[in-house]
Amino acid sequence: MKEITAMSATAVAKKIKEKELSVLEVVEAQLNAIKEREPLYNSYITITEKEAREQALLIQKLIDDGSLKDSPLAGVPVAIKDNICTKGIKTTCASKMLANFIPSYDATVIQRLKNAGAILLGKVNMDEFAMGGTTKTSYFGEAKNPWNPKHTPGGSSGGSSAAVAAEEAFISLGSDTGGSIRQPAAYCGLVGFKPTYGTVSRYGLIPLASSLDQIGPLSRNISDCASILEVISGYDPKDETSIKQVRYTYREALVDDVSNMKIGVPKLYLEEDLDKDIRDCFMGAIKTFEDMGAKVEVFDLDEISYSVQAYYVISCAEASSNLSRYDGIRYGHQAGDYDDLDELYKISRAEGFGYDVKLRIMLGTHMLSSGNYEKYYDKARRIRSLISRSYEDAFKKYDIILSPESLTTAPLLKSKNSPSTKKHRSEILNCSVNLAGLPAVSIPCGIDKKGLPIGLQIIGSLFGEKSLIQAAYSFEQTKPYERPGTLID
Amino acid sequence: MKINNDIFNNILNMVKLSCTEEEKKQLIKDLNKLVGFIDTMSELNTDNVEPMTYIHSTRNVYREDIVNDSKEDHDIHANALEIKDGYYVVPRILE
């Protein structure tokens, strides 16, 4: 089983294409791995065993007749974060509110994956409504980090990261609003890619914050990421915030060359309270890029100091608006006992939402309310302009920007989750990227003394995915993927 | 301004939620912590800066005025608790 499930998506697709493996063999190996490991990691909310086997046979026929010869993902099993709609398959957002919700349509990204011959294995665990950084808020129980199950796999795409690191899927899709792909990727030793806002259609992504959300992949190497990005990217008339681009040939950027690449490192990040191992690893990564011929320079990016405050206001304001649709009538949890319509709404929502969701939608509504709108929401949008402009200026000088992906490695599951200064500071590494709509990738760059992975974040200019992929690919040649030593074989 | 009991109840009503006394105490505490943190935004001068919502330019979106039968796409009633004659059933609103 390990010989198959430990491969990269690119490698398994090649073996399927060259008829060394059948799609059904790969799917069976993957389902066996899930059966063995799920009791330990709880990565999945729904496993679509029957559908995956049926799809495997259909896809094998299409591969054999040549219909999928140009697809990089033909026959590859993938896991999908449970906030992305899948027709006929429960899509819960890890919430009691949607515990029995079955979409009657596929998200655009799902349709594209199906057209490319990918096999859906199931829906993976997450923080409730994508609000959180640990997956502890999931109604279906926390997921665990395959590197050390006492630690969180991160969030909100924690199930996505745990599944791929535990070899329960070759690739997964997550969503990123303020770091929710990149941070879990870093915690689990994976590559996690957030594309430029507007690159991937959000049609069928159950929204958290509509001006920040993007769907993206988590994988064991950058080549797999580039392949799935090619499949899922593209203008979609059903999502008019998606942008028409000329080409999406990201695999062309898998080139080992950063000579003369100009790299900026914001001084602000070097002054953060980083764990020592993370700081050493980050400085080591800078040196690696310099040794490979890139020019690295520290520069001021002080305007992003207020990113987290602006992010909280904007994301919670948009979330409170997006979650107002859950009224217990058209879909979702409905209270059993109420006197009138007002009570139906209030009790259904109180019963359906967890604590963190309630906190955020209340904060968001408060920020938007009369007397507060200008002081908070408008102010945050002005800060967003400043942040966006600062990055724009920075990218006139630099091709990419480097930062650590987080201040710490994966915390213990039993650590407290309440708002704190350190938690706010750790979000500064991620959320300014979403506010500016930029692409960013987290790649593994080392292991700390506790044996937990450390991530490096590379940020690109708007639509600068290719520079990110090239930089990540070059770095990866010096630090190939490491498998968690704790996996049962 | 700190969130007191009255402000909290007003927000609770606006978001159409209810909560226990224990939850209320914790929510007020956590909300005030977050608001205290967010209040530091005022330290940054944003005079003459235009507010920004979308990264890319905003534009109106038009399509050809052709009728699509949206029932072909998906069944919007599929997850409702109760449907009658194509309508969602709700508690009585008018006396």
| Overall number of domains of chain A | 2
What is the strand content of chain B? under 5%
CATH architectural group of the domain at 5-41 in chain B: Orthogonal Bundle
CATH topology of the domain at 5-41 in chain B: Histone, subunit A
Structural class of chain B: mainly alpha
> What is the terminal separation of chain B in angstroms?
40 Å
Top-tier CATH class of the domain at 5-41 in chain B: Mainly Alpha
Number of strands of chain B: 2
Rg for CA atoms of chain B: 23 Å
> Into which percent range does the helicity of residues of chain B fall?
25-40%
Shape of chain B: flat
Give the C-level CATH assignment of the largest domain in chain A.
Alpha Beta
Number of helices of chain B: 2
Total helical segments of chain A: 16
Which strand order do you get reading across the main beta sheet of chain A? 1-3-2-4-6-5-10-11-9-7-8
Descriptive account of the structure:
With 489 residues, chain A is an alpha/beta fold. Chain A folds into 2 domains: 2-260 and 403-478, Amidase signature (AS) enzymes (Alpha-Beta Complex), CATH 3.90.1300; 305-380, no CATH class. Chain A starts with a helix and ends in an 11-residue tail after the last helix. Chain A is built from 16 helices and 11 strands. The model of chain A has no long low-confidence stretch (mean pLDDT 95). Chain B has a domain at 5-41: Histone, subunit A (Orthogonal Bundle), CATH 1.10.20. A two-stranded antiparallel ribbon of chain B has the order 1-2. Chain B has helices at residues 5-14, 21-38, and strands at 83-84, 87-88. Chain B is flat, with a radius of gyration of 23 Å. Chain B has 95 residues and is mainly α.
